[in-house]
Amino acid sequence: MEECIFCKILNGDFGTEFVYENDYVAAFNDINPKAPVHVLVVPKVHIASLNELEDKNLMGELLSAVRAVAQKTGLKAYKTLINTGKEAGQEVFHLHLHVMGDK
Ligand code: 5GP
Ligand code: ZN
After folding, report:
1. For residue 93, how far is its CA from the centre of ligand 2 (angstroms)?
2. Which of 33, 36, 41, 46 is the most buried (most CB within 10 A)?
3. Which is catalytic among the residues 38, 94, 96, 98?
4. According to the model, what pLDDT value does residue 2 have?
């Protein structure tokens, strides 16, 4: 997906530092944080939204990465959010899980 901003980030186009990464997912800081810690967890393959996510192993990887991000950033408590669809507030159509909290 050439025009997808998160695919470009995953491709290293902007030199974005990853908070967490494995073979399946990556996590990076939100550019416009709405909490002291606001990280986005994304699959490394382009999937537009939760509605297009078929791979149940990848579902597990995404949630597992949320927990890894929380541990790595020192969050004991955090909110996890997935916006699905424009009307629900999804702005970037590359699936992402928001991880938000305060240390
Ligand atoms: P959504 O509303 O789609 O659930 O969330 C999209 C999120 O992506 C927003 O919180 C927004 O601040 C973030 N975002 C948009 N463009 C960029 C970008 O280029 N880099 C980063 N790190 N975050 C972005
Ligand atoms: Zn993408």
Report:
1. 7
2. 41
3. 96
4. 67
Does the active-site annotation cover 96? yes
Domains, in order of start, for the chain: 5-101 (3.30.428.10)
Contact 6/94 with Cβ under 8 angstroms? Answer: yes
**Whether this model's pTM surpasses 0.85:** yes
**Residues 6+ away with beta carbon under 8 Å from 74:** 37, 103
Question: From the CA of 32, how far away is ligand 1's center (Å)?
Answer: 7
User: pLDDT tens digits for 33-84?
Assistant: 999 999 999 999 999 999 999 999 999 999 999 999 999 999 999 999 999 9
Among 15, 97, 19, 87, which residue's Cα sits nearest to residue 58?
Answer: 97
Pairing, β 25-29 against β 79-81: unpaired
- Which ligand is located closest to the Cα atom of residue 100? 1
